[in-house]
């Protein structure tokens, strides 16, 4: 599995037509980079989920504590619920993370 796609127009009803999100998904990771394509900006990473890191299922839900959170959140997540979930330039990822991305998409890491 290895695919990528571009979503143009973010916001409700594509209210920000100058913005796009480039998604890259494969068996190693998921990566999302939004940018202003009309300004030819490089964009910043808003989601980088590595599938090679340890993961665990959510705790067993109970009536008192129901859980439906099956999100795999590890490196940077687009939901922005943690301090480390701030958008960053791709070059600010760790060297091993950049190498992982470069193996799949060499044009992203220059």
Walk me through the structure:
It is a single chain. By secondary structure, the chain is mainly β. It has one domain (2-54, 70-108): 2-Layer Sandwich (Arylsulfatase, C-terminal domain), CATH 3.30.1120.110. Helix content is 9%, strand content 29%. The protein has a four-stranded antiparallel β-sheet with strand order 1-2-3-4, with no helix packed on it. The longest helix is centred in the C-terminal third of the chain and has 10 residues, at 95-104. It is globular, with a radius of gyration of 16 Å. The relative contact order is 0.17.
SSE layout and pairings?
Layout: E1 2-10, E2 16-26, E3 29-36, E4 47-50, H1 95-104
Q: Give me the strand/helix succession.
A: EEEEH
Structural class: mainly beta
Percent range for β-strand residues? 25-35%
Overall outline? globular
How many strands in all?
4
The main β sheet shows up as: 4 strands, antiparallel
Any guess at the CATH architecture? Answer: 2-Layer Sandwich
Report low-confidence residues grouped into runs of 5 or more.
none
| Range of helix content | under 10%
CATH topology: Arylsulfatase, C-terminal domain
Radius of gyration from the alpha-carbon trace, in angstroms? 16 Å
CATH class descriptor name: Alpha Beta
Task: Give the end-to-end Cα distance, rounded to a whole number of Å.
Answer: 24 Å
Average pLDDT, rounded to a whole number, is 86
Structure described in brief:
The chain has one helix at 95-104, and strands at 2-10, 16-26, 29-36, 47-50. It has 110 residues and is mainly beta. It has a 4-stranded antiparallel β-sheet with strand order 1-2-3-4, with no helix packed on it.
């Amino acid at each position: 599995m290895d695919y990528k796609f571009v979503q143009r127009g973010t916001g409700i009803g594509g209210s920000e037509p100058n913005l796009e999100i480039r998604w890259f998904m494969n068996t190693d990771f998921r990566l999302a980079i939004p940018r202003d394509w009309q300004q030819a900006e490089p964009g910043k990473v808003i989601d980088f989920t590595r599938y090679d890191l340890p993961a665990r299922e959510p705790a067993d839900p109970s009536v008192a504590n129901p859980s439906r959170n099956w999100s795999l959140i590890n490196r940077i997540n687009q939901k922005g619920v943690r301090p480390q979930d701030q958008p960053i330039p791709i070059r600010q990822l760790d060297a091993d993370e950049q190498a992982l991305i470069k193996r799949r998409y060499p044009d992203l890491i220059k």
